[in-house]
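Why do we care about 3D structure at all? Because function follows from shape, and shape follows, mostly, from sequence. That is the central idea of this module. The next example makes it concrete: a single protein chain, its amino acid sequence, and then its structure expressed as tokens.
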Amino acid sequence: MTFRQKHLLGIEPLHPDEIRSILDLADKYADQNRLPVQNEKVLAGLTQVNMFFENSTRTLASFELAGKRLGATVMNMAMQASSIKKGETLVDTALTLNAMHPDLLVVRHPHSGAVNLLAEKVNCAVLNAGDGRHEHPTQALLDALTIRREKGRLHRLSVAICGDIAHSRVARSNIHLLGKMENRIRLIAPPTLIPAGAANWGVEVFDDMAEGLKGVDVVMMLRLQKERMDGAFIPSTREYYHRFGLDAAKLAHAKDDAIVMHPGPMNRGVEIDGTLADDIHRSVIQEQVEMGVAVRMAAMELLARNLQVDQPKGVMA
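And the structure:
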């Protein structure tokens, strides 16, 4: 397998072969995770620390489960009760952690670039679990694995990403990944939720769902991220759902076998109709959650392999 990275900080630095390496290994883990007995302990003797400065359910739980299934010692740090709250800087926190010699550090942070800064200060492998509006690489990878398993390929598909593009790190990581794998990408949102310069990203931009969804293979809905909004971006959630919420009538413009995705958490009746979200024939939202564990297992194993090439197992510089 081809994977040369010391850290997983984003999709943008990855070569297509490295993306395929993660997905191929994750595919194996996805099947293995469905078996009653799992004996992979490739991270035995290694320590994984999860540092989440933002609330999380799916990402934190799946990283914890992924590490434990691979035999790592896993510690979740309660950042709300950490010394950060007492005024300690992020760099000092990183140096303190580094002195404890972890092997894998999983970080979610509200500020773009914070995870990259941490990676410069520690000796271990760092995985970005989402930083501000910047990137969320493992979400894009699990989305890619879900698409590949459902569609049988991950190239030359037409994918619509719909909703709050402006505030979404998920959208950015998916645009990078889907573009590298030669897919046609459409962004659909109100003009207020489309980032400036998006038309120069090699994507098509629409402000009409019927036009944007016409003939697509994949419909990826996004949550309205009100916690990142500092103004009025939409008239009301009712009006937003009327124009941009996914329902059966709007989905009818996509291909008959188009799949529906959402990274969660969902606001039913705002971004997506609840009945459609639960439709086992069209929705792969639960499959995305399942693939998240497999992708995170694969990413940590590949980083651990590179870590052990440079130094003995479990020993940090």
